[in-house]
Amino acid sequence: MVNMLLFQVGWFVCLLNGSLAALGYTLCVLLLHSIFMQHSWREWYLFGAMALTGTLWDGLLSSLGLIQFLPAGVILLPPIALAPVWLVCLWVLFATTVNHSLYWLSAYPRVAILLAATVAPISYYAGVKLGAAHLSPPPWRGLLAIALGWGFVVPWALIFCRRYCRPDKNHTLYR
Question: Is the pLDDT of residue 171 over 60?
Fold first, then answer.
């Protein structure tokens, strides 16, 4: 419950306060996570993979003109801007929930796909309404792309956690 609360607070911090506040909050959450919640050091691979995946995915959506994010704090890799720092932080914060608050979904992959494909576009749309991004007309195209991407990414992350981040009787590589 604390894990999901930290993510929800982080969502607002990232969208409403910009990249510097998002980075500071994310670093604090990662510190708390590593002290109190982490099951395995392998979760750090998940955090990195989710940050990279999210940056590339949202960068692709932006490059295709489906969604435009606020320009402040953008990570630049010529010739395209991939994603604002606050958005990368949001992906990392989401990754902290995959092996904890959302882990129950790993037993239900179809539910995970359906929830991710439904909740993610709602979250992005809320971000648009808060002024953090703009959807290009018609907005359903961007929301559909978001749904498809998240419908793939969330089950992949859950599978990774189920295989590598949770201790079981066959693995001794955990804390």
Answer: no
